[in-house]
Design a protein that fits this description.
With about 230 residues, the chain is α/β, with parallel strands linked by helices. Helices cover about 40% and strands about 25% of the residues. O-methyltransferase that catalyzes the 2 O-methylation steps in the ubiquinone biosynthetic pathway.
Length: about 230
């Protein structure tokens, strides 16, 4: 059984045509993408490396990584976002290998293939996020690097990501997130360690509603955060 929630796929398929509208529903992803990609590049020096972007959607992160010199494969189970991603990559002159395949299925076919694996803003949308982590570990080469980003589960995160972002500021459509699917850093770190990966760093990402800017915040993982891990040689 595929680790996917059809309702989540349908949710993002319905707005796929607007994936690259910088003022539309995906505006926050456009705004945080340079932060995420720069952080990944700083840690992994991705130029010339094989990078897998799991849950790539319309390709915002995949393109950012490709622009920094990586050889990128992007996978997703939403066909409409993938078609948007393929078209936009063509328009951007970027050679990105987009595939409609589950991470677990790709792990069976291409174990130990990738230097870097990313899974960004996707774990909180699947029924079994730990299964995705296991696939990530399998897909990485020995010495490979893993980058995950998701949302903490606590009252502050509920207020910021659901009440504020969806209802007050209207930064994303209502119903984008489900609080019960948010993931505590301790849970994510445990899944990573259970797959024999080493947690290297937790990095927060905060939003200032006054300046309307995001920034990386090493000491604040209360809401959005990244986890950086490595696979032993």
């Amino acid at each position: 059984m595929t680790n996917v929630d059809p309702a989540e796929i349908s949710k993002f398929e319905s707005i796929a045509s607007r994936w690259w509208d910088p003022s539309g529903e995906f505006k926050p992803l456009h705004e945080i993408n340079p932060l995420r990609c720069n952080y990944i590049d700083e840690k992994a020096n991705i130029a010339g490396k094989k990078v897998l972007d799991i849950g790539c959607g319309g390709g915002i992160a995949s393109e950012g990584l490709a622009q920094r010199g990586a050889t990128v494969t992007g996978i997703d189970l939403g066909e409409a976002p993938l078609e948007v991603a393929k078209l936009h990559a063509l328009e951007s002159g970027l050679n990105i290998d987009y595939q409609c395949v589950a991470a677990e299925a790709l792990a069976e076919e291409q174990a130990g293939t990738f230097d870097v694996v990313t899974c960004l803003e996707m774990l909180e949308h699947v029924p079994d996020p730990a299964s995705i982590i296991t696939a990530c570990a399998t897909l990485l080469k020995p010495g490979g690097q893993l980058f995950l980003s998701t949302i903490n589960r606590n009252p502050k995160a509920y207020g910021a990501m659901i009440l504020a972002a969806e209802y007050v500021l209207k930064m994303v459509p209502k119903g984008t997130h489900e609080y019960r699917r948010f993931i505590k850093p301790s849970e994510l770190a445990r899944w990573v360690r259970e797959d024999d990966l080493l947690v290297e760093e937790l990095m927060g990402m905060t939003y200032n509603p006054l300046t309307r800017q995001f920034k990386l915040t090493p000491n604040d993982v209360d809401v959005n955060y990244l986890l950086y891990a490595t696979k032993p040689e």
